Amino acid sequence: MNKFFNHDCDECTYLGSLDNYPDIHSDHKNWDLYFCKQCGLADTVIARYGDEGHSYVSGIDFAVTVMPLAEARNRAESLGLLDMAAWKDYTDTKGSKNELGSIR
Questions:
Q1: Where are the alpha helices (H) located in 20-100, listed in sequence order?
Q2: Helix (H, G, I), strand (E, B) or coil at 93
Q3: What are the beta bridge partners of residue 13?
Q4: 88, 58, 32, 71 alpha-carbon torsion, rounded to 10°
Q5: Per residue in 3-33, pLDDT tens?
Q6: pLDDT by residue (tens digit) across 25-80?
Q7: Which residues of 56-88 are buried (b: 16+ CB within 10 A; e: fewer)?
Q8: Does pTM top 0.85 for this prediction?
Q9: Looking at per-residue confidence, does 53 or 86 come out higher?
Q10: pLDDT at 95
């Protein structure tokens, strides 16, 4: 599947897209999924729903309730890009990932 939206981060790995995939937190149906190393910060996942810079949700902590982020996390783990045990160790020593993640 092709990307729906532009994404401007060279650090991100495209994980695929979701077509007509509803999420209870928004009216958006199409999503592009990414994994990002965040330039040395804790790894994260991103679900983009538009071309504007602010048109995305991100944060592994939010993958519990934001289904496109859960799908991105699952894909990143299955591809070996994300090690949740290492991510949890990092966030335990550096503080909550919620402080770094964002929902827009």
A1: 67-78, 84-94
A2: helix
A3: 35
A4: 40
A5: 999 998 888 999 999 998 777 667 788 999 9
A6: 677 889 999 999 876 667 899 999 999 989 999 998 888 888 999 999 999 999 99
A7: bbbbbbbbeebbbbbbbbebbeeeeebeeeebe
A8: no
A9: 53
A10: 58
Cβ atoms of 56 and 48 within 8 Å: the answer is: yes
Q: Under a CB-based contact definition with an 8 Å cutoff, are residues 55 and 46 in contact?
A: no
Contact 100, 42 (CB under 8 A): yes
Structure tokens at 40: 């040395």
Alpha-carbon span 76 to 99, nearest angstrom: 21
Calculate the alpha carbon distances from 100 to 18, 20, 79 in Å: 25, 28, 24
- Return the residue matching tokens 């919620």: 98
